[in-house]
Write a structure and sequence with these properties.
single chain; mainly beta; Jelly Rolls; 2 domains; 41% strand; elongated
Length: 198
C-alpha cells in the first residue's frame, strides 16, 4: 500500500543531500499533485428484480479510466473489480455514475437505489445494510435511469468501499452496453484522496 510522505523538520544549518531534498520537496509535491486516485468503468451486470446486487467494474485500462499511483488497491479477481481499498487514513471523494436499464417498460415511477458501504462483505445485501450513502438515479425514460452521485467519506488505511443497487418491479442492467455503448462509458466508479482527517 502507498503511504503519504513523511513531513520532516528542518534543522538550522543542516547540510542537505540530493536524497534529502528529493524526499522533503519532490516527494511531498508529487503526493500533493497526484494523490491516490482511481477511476474504473462499469462492467455490465443484470440484477434480479427486487434483489440487491454488487456493481462490478473493469480494471484500469479501459477508456476513461486511470490510476494516479498504485495506492488505491482494486479488490476482486478474474478481471472484475468488486471493491476499492484505501491506502492511507483520510477523507476520500467517492463518485459513482451510471446508466441502469430495466428489462421491461414502466409508465409508473419505479424505484432504483444505489448504495455505497465501507467494509461490508462481498454481497449486495451487506452493502445495502451497511450503506454510508444512498442515491436514487433519475428515470429518463420508461426503461432507463441515469445520473451521478458524489460524497466525501472518511476512510482508514485498508478500508474497502463496495457498491450495490436494487430496482423493484423489473430486472435491471448496470452499464448496459447491449443497449448503447455510451451506457458503458457513462457508468463508472471513482475514488480520490482529498486530505487528512481533521
Amino acid at each position: 500500500m502507498s503511504t503519504g510522505p513523511t513531513i520532516e523538520t528542518w534543522t538550522q544549518r543542516e547540510l542537505d543531500s540530493a536524497a534529502i531534498m528529493n524526499r522533503r520537496i519532490r516527494d511531498v509535491h508529487n503526493w500533493l499533485i497526484r494523490p491516490p486516485a482511481v477511476r474504473t468503468q462499469g462492467r455490465p451486470r443484470t440484477l434480479g428484480a427486487g434483489t440487491y446486487g454488487l456493481l462490478p467494474c473493469n480494471p484500469v485500462g479501459a477508456a476513461d479510466t486511470y490510476q494516479s499511483q498504485a495506492g488505491i488497491a482494486l479488490v476482486g479477481g478474474d478481471g472484475v473489480v468488486w471493491g476499492y481499498q484505501a491506502p492511507v487514513n483520510g477523507h476520500y471523494r467517492v463518485a459513482i455514475g451510471g446508466t441502469f436499464t430495466a428489462a421491461t417498460s414502466s409508465t409508473a415511477s419505479r424505484d432504483l437505489s444505489v448504495y455505497a458501504a465501507v467494509n461490508a462483505s462481498e454481497s449486495g445485501q451487506s452493502v445495502a445494510d451497511n450503506a454510508v450513502t444512498i442515491w436514487c438515479p433519475v428515470a429518463i425514460s420508461a426503461y432507463t435511469h441515469m445520473g451521478t452521485h458524489v460524497r466525501e467519506i472518511p476512510l482508514n488505511a485498508g478500508d474497502i468501499v463496495r457498491f450495490a443497487a436494487r430496482m423493484d418491479g423489473a430486472d435491471v442492467t448496470w452499464a448496459d452496453t447491449n443497449t448503447s455503448p455510451s451506457y458503458g462509458l457513462s457508468s463508472f466508479v471513482e475514488l480520490r484522496y482529498v486530505g487528512e482527517k481533521p
